[in-house]
Amino acid sequence: MNSAVLATQGLARSFKQGDETIEVLRGVDLTVAPGEIVALLGPSGSGKSTLLQAVGLLEGGFVGSIRIMGVEAAKLDAHGRTVVRRDRLGFVYQFHHLLPDFNATENVVLPQMIHGAERAAAEERARGLLTTLGLGHRLTHRPSQLSGGEQQRVAVARALANRPALVLADEPTGNLDETTADVVLAEFLRLVRGEGSAALIATHNERLAQRMDRVVRLHEGTLA
């Protein structure tokens, strides 16, 4: 377990809704090995996003253990969690959340400069990632000038810009048509594998999940 990029034990999360307690996660045990791409499969409302928020250190209120690269999240203060998110994790969401006033390259440069990279090196890294994703001709285009698939490719490049150990993706192609989703997912998986990162990718699509290294199924708050 110490060699895992991600390891959770007994991870649970419940919410109060009036007089009722809703248990979203019920003791999830999950490990992701270095370089492994894991599909987190489950229908909408099964708790996939809640699990990703937990392991992404984006939300509190969880019970159980979360270890990222051997570091116990419960022992981290707010600054420590920020450092882990910045240095070890990359995030891709269903909606790209790109900065509208920045072009494709700048959207990928910015997280690197926050991380401390020199601008020239950050720009070279951004251009390389975007070109690998087929956007070499769109480097100076703003999000409004890009198609949905192109915007999501920029989001993928941004997530990998700082060479994270683990990429967390929440329905990363859920907002795309089937043909575009297939292309973007293929490029996403190819780039993640090429970078040597691990990934935990939430999806409700069985067909897409089967293209990953391993599939875990979330059902009624537990992994099947």
Number of domains: 1
Number of strand elements: 10
Strand order of the largest sheet: 6-7-8-3-9-10
Q: Which secondary-structure class do the elements indicate? A: alpha/beta
Coarse shape: globular
> How is the main sheet built?
6 strands, mixed
CATH architecture: 3-Layer(aba) Sandwich
Poorly predicted sequence stretches spanning 5 or more consecutive residues: none
The CATH topology is what?
Answer: Rossmann fold
Question: Nutshell version of this structure?
Answer:
This protein has helices at residues 48-55, 78-88, 104-115, 119-132, 148-160, 178-195, 206-209, and strands at residues 6-17, 20-32, 37-41, 63-68, 71-72, 89-92, 166-170, 198-203, 214-219, 222-223. By secondary structure, it is an alpha/beta fold.
